[in-house]
What does this fold into?
Amino acid sequence: MDSHYFGWIDAQCLTGEPVIVFGNGWAHLSVVLGSLMNKSGSRPLFMRNGLAYEIHSCLDPDLSFTPERWKQEIRKGLARLSAKSRWQRFASGVNQLSEDQLDYLTDVDGKDRVAWCALIRSGDSYQGIGVSRYVRLPGEGACAEFAVTVIDEYQKQGIGRALLERLLESARCNGISTLRGFVFPSNLLMLELCRQLHAHAIPVESFIQVDIPVPSTDGFNGQID
Ligand SMILES: CC(C)(COP(=O)(O)OP(=O)(O)OC[C@H]1O[C@@H](n2cnc3c(N)ncnc32)[C@H](O)[C@@H]1OP(=O)(O)O)[C@@H](O)C(=O)NCCC(=O)NCCS
It folds into this structure.
Protein backbone atom coordinates (compact mmCIF):
# COMPACT_ATOMS: atom_id res chain seq x y z
CA MET A 1 0.00 0.00 0.00
CA ASP A 2 1.43 3.38 -0.88
CA SER A 3 1.38 6.44 1.33
CA HIS A 4 -1.86 7.73 -0.16
CA TYR A 5 -4.99 6.79 1.54
CA PHE A 6 -8.63 7.52 1.51
CA GLY A 7 -10.14 7.39 4.90
CA TRP A 8 -13.00 8.30 7.13
CA ILE A 9 -11.86 9.60 10.45
CA ASP A 10 -13.64 10.57 13.57
CA ALA A 11 -12.84 14.23 13.06
CA GLN A 12 -16.58 14.78 13.34
CA CYS A 13 -16.12 14.50 17.09
CA LEU A 14 -13.68 17.42 16.94
CA THR A 15 -15.33 19.66 14.41
CA GLY A 16 -18.97 18.66 14.39
CA GLU A 17 -18.58 18.15 10.65
CA PRO A 18 -18.13 14.92 8.73
CA VAL A 19 -14.64 14.90 7.25
CA ILE A 20 -13.26 12.76 4.46
CA VAL A 21 -9.49 12.90 4.09
CA PHE A 22 -7.62 12.36 0.87
CA GLY A 23 -3.89 12.62 1.14
CA ASN A 24 -0.81 11.26 2.75
CA GLY A 25 -0.23 11.41 6.40
CA TRP A 26 -0.87 13.54 9.44
CA ALA A 27 0.36 16.78 7.91
CA HIS A 28 -2.45 16.67 5.42
CA LEU A 29 -4.93 15.67 8.08
CA SER A 30 -4.00 18.59 10.31
CA VAL A 31 -4.42 21.04 7.43
CA VAL A 32 -7.89 19.68 6.74
CA LEU A 33 -8.85 19.81 10.40
CA GLY A 34 -7.34 23.25 10.86
CA SER A 35 -9.23 24.72 7.94
CA LEU A 36 -12.48 23.20 9.11
CA MET A 37 -12.09 24.41 12.64
CA ASN A 38 -11.31 27.96 11.54
CA LYS A 39 -14.09 28.47 9.11
CA SER A 40 -16.68 29.43 11.68
CA GLY A 41 -18.72 26.33 11.88
CA SER A 42 -20.65 24.78 9.19
CA ARG A 43 -21.42 24.45 5.57
CA PRO A 44 -24.82 25.83 4.53
CA LEU A 45 -27.78 23.51 4.89
CA PHE A 46 -31.06 23.96 3.09
CA MET A 47 -34.61 23.94 4.34
CA ARG A 48 -37.28 22.17 2.31
CA ASN A 49 -38.29 25.54 0.87
CA GLY A 50 -34.71 26.11 -0.32
CA LEU A 51 -33.71 28.73 2.28
CA ALA A 52 -30.12 28.36 3.50
CA TYR A 53 -29.29 27.99 7.18
CA GLU A 54 -26.40 26.82 9.30
CA ILE A 55 -25.99 24.73 12.40
CA HIS A 56 -23.26 25.66 14.86
CA SER A 57 -22.14 24.55 18.23
CA CYS A 58 -23.35 27.15 20.70
CA LEU A 59 -19.72 27.23 21.90
CA ASP A 60 -18.46 28.28 18.46
CA PRO A 61 -16.06 31.17 19.19
CA ASP A 62 -16.44 32.55 15.66
CA LEU A 63 -20.08 33.37 16.34
CA SER A 64 -19.08 35.67 19.21
CA PHE A 65 -21.64 33.70 21.12
CA THR A 66 -20.93 35.07 24.56
CA PRO A 67 -23.44 33.93 27.17
CA GLU A 68 -24.94 37.46 27.09
CA ARG A 69 -25.38 37.40 23.31
CA TRP A 70 -26.80 33.92 23.54
CA LYS A 71 -29.30 34.95 26.24
CA GLN A 72 -30.41 37.78 23.99
CA GLU A 73 -31.00 35.31 21.14
CA ILE A 74 -33.02 33.05 23.46
CA ARG A 75 -35.18 36.01 24.56
CA LYS A 76 -35.74 37.00 20.93
CA GLY A 77 -36.49 33.41 19.95
CA LEU A 78 -38.98 32.97 22.78
CA ALA A 79 -40.81 36.08 21.65
CA ARG A 80 -41.19 34.54 18.19
CA LEU A 81 -42.39 31.18 19.50
CA SER A 82 -46.15 30.56 19.49
CA ALA A 83 -47.93 29.87 22.76
CA LYS A 84 -48.40 26.27 21.62
CA SER A 85 -44.70 25.73 20.92
CA ARG A 86 -43.74 27.35 24.22
CA TRP A 87 -46.11 25.00 25.99
CA GLN A 88 -44.72 21.99 24.16
CA ARG A 89 -41.13 22.96 24.97
CA PHE A 90 -41.41 24.22 28.54
CA ALA A 91 -44.60 22.47 29.67
CA SER A 92 -45.89 25.85 30.78
CA GLY A 93 -47.16 29.04 29.19
CA VAL A 94 -43.89 30.84 29.92
CA ASN A 95 -43.68 34.35 28.41
CA GLN A 96 -40.23 35.18 29.62
CA LEU A 97 -37.37 33.33 31.20
CA SER A 98 -35.78 34.28 34.50
CA GLU A 99 -32.05 35.06 34.74
CA ASP A 100 -31.58 31.69 36.49
CA GLN A 101 -33.30 29.85 33.66
CA LEU A 102 -31.19 31.71 31.09
CA ASP A 103 -28.04 30.86 33.05
CA TYR A 104 -29.06 27.22 33.02
CA LEU A 105 -29.84 27.20 29.29
CA THR A 106 -26.54 28.81 28.37
CA ASP A 107 -24.35 26.77 30.68
CA VAL A 108 -22.67 24.35 28.29
CA ASP A 109 -19.32 22.58 28.37
CA GLY A 110 -19.43 20.69 25.05
CA LYS A 111 -19.39 17.36 26.84
CA ASP A 112 -21.98 16.84 29.57
CA ARG A 113 -23.98 19.91 28.56
CA VAL A 114 -24.15 20.42 24.82
CA ALA A 115 -26.15 22.78 22.62
CA TRP A 116 -26.41 23.26 18.88
CA CYS A 117 -28.10 26.24 17.29
CA ALA A 118 -29.62 26.73 13.86
CA LEU A 119 -29.29 30.19 12.39
CA ILE A 120 -29.84 32.18 9.27
CA ARG A 121 -26.92 34.34 8.30
CA SER A 122 -27.20 37.59 6.49
CA GLY A 123 -23.87 39.28 5.90
CA ASP A 124 -22.11 39.55 9.23
CA SER A 125 -25.25 39.16 11.28
CA TYR A 126 -27.42 36.18 11.98
CA GLN A 127 -30.68 35.26 13.63
CA GLY A 128 -31.21 32.12 15.69
CA ILE A 129 -34.08 29.93 14.51
CA GLY A 130 -33.68 26.78 16.58
CA VAL A 131 -31.72 25.01 19.25
CA SER A 132 -31.15 21.48 20.50
CA ARG A 133 -29.50 20.66 23.78
CA TYR A 134 -28.79 17.85 26.17
CA VAL A 135 -27.70 17.66 29.77
CA ARG A 136 -26.20 14.47 31.17
CA LEU A 137 -28.43 13.14 33.94
CA PRO A 138 -26.65 12.95 37.29
CA GLY A 139 -26.21 9.38 38.48
CA GLU A 140 -27.14 8.00 35.05
CA GLY A 141 -23.78 8.27 33.34
CA ALA A 142 -24.81 7.18 29.87
CA CYS A 143 -28.16 8.97 29.67
CA ALA A 144 -28.83 12.65 28.97
CA GLU A 145 -32.05 14.61 28.85
CA PHE A 146 -32.60 16.51 25.62
CA ALA A 147 -34.87 19.18 24.20
CA VAL A 148 -35.22 20.73 20.77
CA THR A 149 -37.04 23.82 19.59
CA VAL A 150 -37.53 25.41 16.20
CA ILE A 151 -39.24 28.78 15.79
CA ASP A 152 -42.74 28.25 14.37
CA GLU A 153 -42.24 29.92 11.01
CA TYR A 154 -39.33 27.52 10.29
CA GLN A 155 -40.94 24.31 11.53
CA LYS A 156 -41.52 21.32 9.22
CA GLN A 157 -38.51 22.28 7.12
CA GLY A 158 -36.22 19.51 8.39
CA ILE A 159 -34.40 21.71 10.92
CA GLY A 160 -35.59 19.87 14.04
CA ARG A 161 -34.30 16.62 12.65
CA ALA A 162 -30.97 18.13 11.62
CA LEU A 163 -30.53 19.65 15.10
CA LEU A 164 -31.33 16.33 16.74
CA GLU A 165 -28.89 14.51 14.51
CA ARG A 166 -26.12 16.90 15.57
CA LEU A 167 -27.04 16.28 19.17
CA LEU A 168 -26.91 12.51 18.66
CA GLU A 169 -23.48 12.88 17.12
CA SER A 170 -22.23 14.89 20.13
CA ALA A 171 -23.77 12.31 22.45
CA ARG A 172 -21.92 9.55 20.62
CA CYS A 173 -18.63 11.42 20.90
CA ASN A 174 -19.17 11.95 24.63
CA GLY A 175 -20.07 8.39 25.58
CA ILE A 176 -23.80 8.95 26.00
CA SER A 177 -25.96 6.03 24.85
CA THR A 178 -29.49 7.41 25.31
CA LEU A 179 -31.09 10.79 24.79
CA ARG A 180 -34.23 11.04 26.90
CA GLY A 181 -37.03 13.51 26.32
CA PHE A 182 -40.51 14.17 27.67
CA VAL A 183 -43.11 14.93 25.04
CA PHE A 184 -46.81 15.71 25.31
CA PRO A 185 -48.95 12.97 23.70
CA SER A 186 -50.51 15.69 21.51
CA ASN A 187 -47.11 16.67 20.08
CA LEU A 188 -47.41 14.45 17.01
CA LEU A 189 -44.62 16.16 15.09
CA MET A 190 -42.08 15.54 17.86
CA LEU A 191 -43.29 11.98 18.40
CA GLU A 192 -42.96 11.26 14.69
CA LEU A 193 -39.46 12.69 14.70
CA CYS A 194 -38.54 10.47 17.67
CA ARG A 195 -40.11 7.44 16.01
CA GLN A 196 -37.94 8.02 12.95
CA LEU A 197 -34.91 8.03 15.26
CA HIS A 198 -35.95 4.64 16.68
CA ALA A 199 -37.02 5.98 20.07
CA HIS A 200 -38.50 3.73 22.70
CA ALA A 201 -41.61 5.45 24.07
CA ILE A 202 -43.46 4.88 27.35
CA PRO A 203 -46.14 6.97 29.07
CA VAL A 204 -44.91 8.71 32.23
CA GLU A 205 -47.53 10.77 34.06
CA SER A 206 -48.91 13.23 31.51
CA PHE A 207 -45.95 12.83 29.11
CA ILE A 208 -44.51 10.29 26.75
CA GLN A 209 -40.95 9.51 27.78
CA VAL A 210 -38.91 8.99 24.63
CA ASP A 211 -35.53 7.28 24.82
CA ILE A 212 -33.61 7.76 21.60
CA PRO A 213 -30.73 5.30 21.24
CA VAL A 214 -27.47 6.98 20.28
CA PRO A 215 -26.00 5.18 17.26
CA SER A 216 -22.63 3.74 18.20
CA THR A 217 -21.01 4.74 14.90
CA ASP A 218 -21.56 7.50 12.38
CA GLY A 219 -23.00 4.92 10.00
CA PHE A 220 -20.46 5.61 7.26
CA ASN A 221 -19.87 2.41 5.31
CA GLY A 222 -16.80 3.47 3.40
CA GLN A 223 -18.57 3.93 0.11
CA ILE A 224 -19.16 7.06 -1.89
CA ASP A 225 -21.93 7.19 -4.47
C1 LIG B 1 -40.91 19.39 17.46
C2 LIG B 1 -40.02 20.30 16.63
C3 LIG B 1 -38.69 20.49 17.32
C4 LIG B 1 -39.79 19.60 15.25
O1 LIG B 1 -38.94 20.40 14.47
P1 LIG B 1 -39.23 20.62 12.93
O2 LIG B 1 -38.10 21.36 12.36
O3 LIG B 1 -40.57 21.22 12.79
O4 LIG B 1 -39.25 19.10 12.41
P2 LIG B 1 -38.79 18.52 11.01
O5 LIG B 1 -39.17 19.45 9.91
O6 LIG B 1 -37.36 18.14 11.14
O7 LIG B 1 -39.77 17.25 10.86
C5 LIG B 1 -39.50 16.04 11.44
C6 LIG B 1 -40.49 14.98 10.93
O8 LIG B 1 -41.79 15.18 11.43
C7 LIG B 1 -42.74 14.70 10.46
N1 LIG B 1 -43.84 15.64 10.32
C8 LIG B 1 -43.83 16.82 9.66
N2 LIG B 1 -45.03 17.40 9.80
C9 LIG B 1 -45.80 16.57 10.57
C10 LIG B 1 -47.12 16.63 11.08
N3 LIG B 1 -47.93 17.67 10.84
N4 LIG B 1 -47.56 15.61 11.86
C11 LIG B 1 -46.76 14.56 12.13
N5 LIG B 1 -45.49 14.47 11.68
C12 LIG B 1 -45.02 15.46 10.90
C13 LIG B 1 -42.09 14.55 9.16
O9 LIG B 1 -42.18 13.18 8.86
C14 LIG B 1 -40.66 14.97 9.41
O10 LIG B 1 -39.87 13.96 8.93
P3 LIG B 1 -39.35 13.96 7.43
O11 LIG B 1 -38.04 14.68 7.49
O12 LIG B 1 -39.22 12.53 7.12
O13 LIG B 1 -40.38 14.65 6.61
C15 LIG B 1 -40.68 21.67 16.36
O14 LIG B 1 -41.94 21.48 15.79
C16 LIG B 1 -40.82 22.51 17.64
O15 LIG B 1 -39.94 23.28 17.96
N6 LIG B 1 -41.95 22.40 18.36
C17 LIG B 1 -42.13 23.17 19.59
C18 LIG B 1 -41.21 22.74 20.71
C19 LIG B 1 -41.30 21.26 20.94
O16 LIG B 1 -42.35 20.64 20.83
N7 LIG B 1 -40.17 20.65 21.31
C20 LIG B 1 -40.16 19.22 21.57
C21 LIG B 1 -40.21 18.95 23.04
S1 LIG B 1 -38.56 18.68 23.60
The pocket of coenzyme A is lined by residues 85, 88-89, 147-150, 155-161, 181, 183, 187-190, 192-193, 196 (CB under 6 Å). Residues 40-171 form a domain with the Aminopeptidase fold (CATH 3.40.630.30).
